[in-house]
Design goal:
Largest sheet: 4 strands, antiparallel
Distance between the termini: 32 Å
Number of domains: 3
Structural class: alpha+beta
Number of helices: 8
Radius of gyration: 33 Å
Strand order of the largest sheet: 1-28-27-26
Strand content: 25-35%
CATH topology of the largest domain: Methylamine Dehydrogenase, Chain H
Helix content: 10-25%
CATH class of the largest domain: Mainly Beta
């Protein structure tokens, strides 16, 4: 006879297995074995061979022929300041844009040639016309029709402008951008026209809860990358320092996409896989949920922030992320976001009753980072009271010149010093002043400094809260998974236990060791 408790646990396990199976495959996994640096800036898949992937750090280019299981170095730029800016590949032809020029290899990186002698910032390969590629430079755009051996200037209508990113849509239209302008060409780059400039201040109203863009601030918006909707080629998207910018209806309408879920983070790179929109940001990788009109963070298995570049092969089976902590990948699946309103069963909740709650962990993180709102309140209160305190100054003066006086008489009879010219002591004088500025009761200059520090502190506190919340619930999710789903092997079990220790250590780093201390104390008291 099956015990009720065992039956209940089985039902709970089945419930979580059902939910987990929907997204189980879509977890980030580290894929940077063989890369000497701990970071990666750019990643690119060979557009003719999905099994071959390339990544670049500041000065080194690596290749993998087994979907990231092993990497080998195939190129290095000379000089610490000669940074690799962009990479691309097609059928074994590898292209590298660097600070000192353009390099290419026709034999998968065995040998290299240099065909352009000035800084190159981006590359775009024409997938429909073999051998044609475009590069962005300080002087505009150049095109090669012989796999990068020779280059032709193709910036008519563009002018001399630094091109930061180029993309070719399925319709054959080519889009390019500088830091604040977007251009389009429809004749293989022969003629260009500007279709948008972020230098003007005609942006629509921002989303609720966001700061409205001021005219002076508009010029500080920076375009980082472009993407064309492969399902609807008339839609152009731009990843900017203020979110994702959308241009549709043949460039007749434009707007910023919602920032819900992004926490006002800048978008560093944008990628379309089918009709799905992914962005890389300082907070990680996000996928746009069209149903709820918000961005959802792809956090499963994520041990990185600062995602810098995304890539996917033609088969769209794997999404790659170049991050500050190396290369990560995950399978592309039909991601399901749940909003069921269900709560964890009490049987599961009771397993963690001796652990700190999320609220306790958040308070500990705020306390450790010294970003509690009361700190700002105290500053404002002290600044207001400052007007009642006087500015005190004390001065002392000593006259070192001779001081002579006439001694006219004394009380002693027959004193030989009577009626005599005598030298006296030095003169020492002092003064004290007190000054009040009651205008500070109305407005204090310190309030302006406090306002600036307050905004910075709020942003820092939000970052800390996001980090601690993400780590806490990723740890809890892993705990539930260990309770409800038996690992398939000892290796998988040990990997999950190590991941659990890593998440605990990350939480400790944000709370000053509070989390582990509370865990040990609660276990001792239980």
């Amino acid at each position: 006879m099956v015990k009720p408790s065992a039956l209940l646990l089985g039902i709970i396990a089945g419930f979580f297995i059902f939910l987990a199976c929907q997204n189980a495959e879509a977890q980030w996994s580290f894929a940077g074995n063989g890369i000497k640096e701990a970071y990666a800036n750019i990643i690119s898949c060979d557009i003719k061979n999905d099994n071959v992937t390339y990544i670049a750090t500041d000065n080194f280019l690596y290749a993998s022929e087994d979907e990231g299981r092993n990497w080998k170095q195939i190129f290095s730029s000379r000089g610490m300041e000669n940074k690799i800016n962009f990479i691309g590949a097609s059928a074994g032809n590898v292209f590298c844009a660097a600070a000192d020029g353009f390099y290419f290899s026709a034999d998968a990186g065995i040998s290299w040639q240099k065909s352009y002698q000035k800084p190159v910032y981006c590359i775009a390969l024409d997938t429909k016309n073999n051998g044609i590629l475009y590069i962005g430079t300080d002087e505009g755009i150049f095109v090669s029709k012989d796999n990068a051996f020779t280059w032709q200037f193709c910036s008519v209508g563009l002018g001399i402008v630094k091109i930061k990113y180029i993309i070719i849509g399925q319709s054959g239209k080519i889009y390019a951008c500088s830091e604040n302008r977007i251009f389009k060409a429809e004749d293989q780059g022969a003629n260009w026209k500007e279709i948008y400039s972020l230098l003007r201040n005609d942006a629509p109203e921002t989303q609720p809860g966001e700061y409205p863009a001021e005219e002076a601030e508009e010029s500080f918006v920076v375009i980082n990358s472009l993407a064309v909707n492969s399902s609807n080629p008339v839609e152009l998207y731009a990843a900017t320092s203020k979110g994702v910018f959308f241009l549709g209806n043949e460039e007749k309408t434009w707007a910023y996409m919602t920032k819900a879920g992004l926490d006002r983070n800048q978008a560093q790179h944008i990628l379309f896989i089918g009709d799905k929109i992914y962005i890389a940001s300082y907070r990680g990788v996000f996928l746009y949920d069209r149903k709820d009109a918000r961005w959802q963070q792809l956090w499963e298995g994520m041990s990185f922030l600062d995602a810098r570049f995304l890539a996917a092969g033609n088969k769209n089976s794997i999404i790659w992320a170049a991050t500050a902590k190396g290369i990560y990948k995950q399978p592309v699946v039909n991601k399901i976001f749940y909003n069921t309103g269900l709560e964890l069963p009490q049987e599961i909740v009771d397993k963690f009753k001796n652990e700190p709650t999320i609220a306790e962990a958040q308070r500990a993180a705020i306390r450790y980072a010294e970003v509690h709102p009361d700190k700002i309140k105290n500053w404002r209160s002290q600044a207001a009271k400052k007007a009642w305190l006087p500015e005190v100054s004390v001065g002392v003066d000593r006259d070192v010149s001779d001081y002579w006086h006439w001694e006219t008489g004394s009380t002693g009879a027959g004193n030989r010093l009577d009626d005599d010219l005598r030298k006296g002591k030095d003169i020492i004088s002092w003064d004290a002043t007190m000054k009040w500025d009651f205008g500070n009761l109305v407005f204090n200059d310190d309030q302006t400094n406090i306002d600036v520090r307050s905004r910075l502190m709020v942003e820092l506190r939000d970052d800390i809260m996001n980090d601690i919340t993400r780590l806490y619930y990723e740890r809890r999710r892993l705990q539930v998974e260990l309770l409800t789903s038996e690992p398939k092997s000892e290796k998988e079990r040990f990997d999950k236990l190590l991941r659990l220790e890593e998440l605990t250590a990350n939480i400790d780093s944000l709370t000053g060791g509070y989390f582990s201390t509370r865990l040990e104390r609660n276990k001792a008291e239980a």
